[in-house]
Amino acid sequence: MSVRKFAIAGSSLNGSIALAALPRLSGAVLAASEPFAVAIDFAENEFGKRTLKVRIDGTVALECQRCLKPVDVAVTADSNLTVVAHDEEARARLRDLDPLIVEGDELEVFALIEDELLMALPIIALHPQPDCAGPGNELGASASAVSQGSDESAQVQPGEQRENPFAVLRDLKQRNDAE
Question: Cβ contacts of residue 118 below 8 Å, gap of 6+?
Fold first, then answer.
């Protein structure tokens, strides 16, 4: 599709795209229950540069890193991109803008959508703590109990002195100083 023609006309693309049409994303997620909603608005800015406002919404199933079971994650990609011809132009002129390198005038829409969705995925997918039955939940509960001081062995009774963990080192140092 011609970026120039769509930008000059101020065109918009609205529709949906299935996970099956996005092979790189398919390899990164377990599933997508519904197609992704896609909206791309083309325009030219005050400097004559072609711009794209991209909005993609959907839900994917990822593997929970705590229990290793599927967890549904809402994914939203919302980007304002400025079209540039090459990497040097992106570095030289567009410090405050997100560049989109397009060689020639043809934009690969499916590749753009896939790139935006891949960047919008969370680094680590987790169920909410109470909903997760994984081994991390028990670890989290015991770590929470210790941090709140509910572990009986860590509590000191009033009037009782706690043993200094560095007492052994102090004794060794005193022996070395005496020799």
Answer: 24, 25, 28
The two tokens of residue 139 are: 């670890």
- Identify whether 64 is part of a domain: yes
Beta strands (DSSP E) in 45-97 are: 50-63, 70-84
Q: Are strands 70-84 and 50-63 parallel, antiparallel or unpaired?
A: antiparallel
Contact 22, 75 (CB under 8 A): no
Each residue of 96-109: pLDDT tens digit?
Answer: 678 888 887 788 89
CB 172 within 8 A of CB 178: no
Report how far apart, in Å, the C-alpha atoms of 84 and of each of 3, 52, 88, 100 are.
11, 11, 9, 6
pLDDT in tens, 60-93: 999 998 888 999 999 999 999 888 887 777 777 6
Instruction: Judge whether 123 lies within some domain.
Output: yes
How many structural domains is the chain composed of?
Answer: 1
